[in-house]
Batch of 2 targets.
Target 1
Amino acid sequence: MPLTLFGKLLRKLRIDRDTSQASMAAALGVSPAFLSAVELGKKSAPSHWIGRITEWLDLDQGEKEELEKTWDLTETRNHIRLVIGPSELSRKIAFWLERRYFELDEETLNKIQSIISQEKS
C-alpha cells in the first residue's frame, strides 16, 4: 500500500514539531507501531484523531483544515456513529445518505455542499 496524503502530512507535522513517534502515539492512545502503520498508509486513522492532533500539536486553523482535507481525501471508508443523542431525523438522514451514497447526482451533491458551507459560517 502506498503512502497516503494523510500519513505524509501527519509525519511532516510530527517531525516539524520535533516530536517522536512514541510521544505522539502515547498522546493518541495507540502503539508506536500503529502510528507508524498510519503514517505509511498501511492502517486508517480514526476521524477523532483530527481533534486530538490539532490540540496536542497546537495546530493553527490552516494546518487543521489541511489535516481534515487530507484525511477526507485519504479515507475511503467512513462511519457515522449513531449513539444515544441524535434525533430521529438526524438518524433518518444519516441512513438515507448511506443507502443512496453512490446514487447522488451532481445537483444533489451541490445542494448538500451549499448547506454544509453555510453551517461552517
Note: The mean pLDDT is 85.
Target 2
Amino acid sequence: MRDDDVREALLTSLDADRGDAVSQNALGDWFEEKGDAAAAACFRWVVSNRRRPGHYPRASQYGHYFWELQEREPIINDPQAQLPAPLWRQLLNNDEKEPVASFKSYQSARSAYADLIEAWRSLREAVPDVG
C-alpha cells in the first residue's frame, strides 16, 4: 500500500469516527515516520487530551463539525471539541463566512483535523494539556 493510501485510509476512518483514538495514534505515527514532527505532535496531543472535532447534526448555516473555544461558559459545550485559546485562535481555514466568537466549523472531520494541524504548526508556544 502506498504512503498516500495509508494516510487517506486513516483520514477516512476519522471521517467515519472522528474520535477514533487508534486512527489518531496511527496518524501520529504516520506523520512521525514522514518527518512531520509538528503534525505528529498535534495528534499525540489530541490523543493524550481526548480531543476530537464536535458534531452538530441539525441543519446549520455552518458546517456540521467544529472546534470550540475552551472557556468558562461555552455555547455548544462539547468538552472533547474544546481547544485552549492560543490554539483555537490559530484556526484559520474554517467554513464560516463571518467569524464566530466561540466555535469554528467545517464540512468534514477531516477538514477540522487539517486546520488543527495547520494551527499547531503556526504556534510559537507549547500547547498546554487540558486533561
Note: The two ends are 36 Å apart (CA to CA).
